[in-house]
Amino acid sequence: MSRIGKKPVPVPNGVTVTIDGQSIKVKGPKGELAFDATDDVSIEMSDEGVTVKPRNDSKQARSAWGMSRTMIANLMTGVEKGFEKRLEITGVNPLLQVAQELEGVFINGDDDDGVLWGLGPAQPEARVHRPGFQAGAPGGPGKL
To answer: Buried b vs exposed e over 56-94: b needs ≥16 C-beta within 10 Å?
Structure first.
């Protein structure tokens, strides 16, 4: 039995959940996300939150049980708080040192095409991000 799958996913305040068969849509202050579960699990709304149960005792159903519950929990986190990843960069790199010398580096796009930025080797790989994306060092030099 899945220890993760047994737990219901609580629905935070300000978040609405719509279940239609194997599809679940979650809407909150940060946006709207959806997930389509496999036919091996059933998704139901209860007083405690969203519950996921395997339809049978097959290995595939048991595997999908915990994964589906985790995906639904990630939907709730995404629409309520959003996602954040903090990195600490160690090492010596000339391009990174230039960025570290600036106080609170933030890179914002000035058009709707996204942000073009890159940190790394002498020939950095440029990445284009969606509009509204912010990259920076809010923790100070060396911490992203």
So the answer is: eeeeebbbbbbbbbebbbebbbbbbeeeeeeeeeeeeee
